[in-house]
Design a protein that fits this description.
alpha+beta, Translation Initiation Factor IF3, five-stranded antiparallel beta sheet
Length: 254
């Protein structure tokens, strides 16, 4: 019997050609994939900075009343509540709404002294702390000073903290971001020209917040200081503050 001759139309020839083509296709795909995955993208990252100055429009003061060595717990609470009622009435009379006053702490505790090596109750201490928000501080700075003064005159004997904030912080952050982006774009163009390359599209960005509003404690206020009742308004300057944000833009190179 004569061996079967292979022709290009025979099934075996067609199958053999398909196998060869498949192997070649797999090899080409592997080579291309290796080149694509091993090729590093041509990119550059440029950093820009945006600064926005602002004047705080919100002041937050924490003040309170401390009652020491009352004869009984009821006496301590009675004295505390009486002073707090007078303080809140004085504050309400000076442009502060009920929604802007809140209690941050309220304590009642027995005080013990040692006599003949024996611990005995010598009295009762009570304390309450109020957080008061003074709005529109940028338009009426004297109102904050007046609030602290009338509160201490009404019976507050502690001023534990004073912070300044801004109600439009999100808008200010966005303004700083836009300034930072524009700064980064300007730098990118200058650097690309100096380096002799051309910029393509922005492929990514991220921000770095360097400075945002934070509590500010003026000298002489804070840390549980006692407040007098001389009626002399305190001086509480806030000064100008800054929000600083960096934006990092990543460009593809042509």
């Amino acid at each position: 019997m004569e061996p079967e001759k292979l022709t290009w139309r025979s099934p075996k020839t067609i199958i053999l050609l398909l196998v060869v083509l498949g192997v070649i296709a797999i090899a080409i795909v592997s080579i291309l994939r290796e080149k694509i995955t091993s090729q590093q993208p041509r990119q550059v990252t440029v950093t820009g900075q945006g600064k926005v100055s602002y004047e705080p429009d919100l002041a937050i003061v924490t003040l309170g009343v401390q009652i020491d060595k009352a004869k009984t717990a009821d006496v301590a609470l009675g004295q505390l509540n009486d002073k707090m009622a007078k303080i809140m009435a004085a504050v309400y009379a000076n442009k502060i709404s009920e929604a802007d006053i809140s209690t941050s702490a309220y304590t009642l505790a027995a005080q013990y002294d040692y006599k003949n090596n024996i611990s005995v109750v010598s009295g009762y201490n009570a304390n309450e702390q109020l957080i008061i928000k003074v709005r529109n501080y940028d338009k009426d700075k004297n109102n904050l000073n007046k609030i602290i003064s009338v509160a201490t005159s009404a019976g507050a004997n502690q001023v534990n903290g004073l912070t300044f904030d801004v109600s439009s912080v999100n808008d200010l952050k966005q303004e700083a971001r836009i300034k930072a982006i524009n700064d980064a774009k300007a730098k990118a163009q200058v650097l690309a020209t100096a380096a002799g390359v051309k910029l393509k599209d922005i492929s990514g960005w991220y921000e770095n917040i360097l400075q945002v509003p934070s509590p500010v404690y003026p000298e002489g206020i804070g840390g549980g200081s006692s407040a007098g009742s001389s009626g002399v308004p305190p001086q509480t300057p806030s000064g100008l503050k800054e929000i600083i944000i960096e934006m990092n833009l990543t460009y593809d190179l042509k």
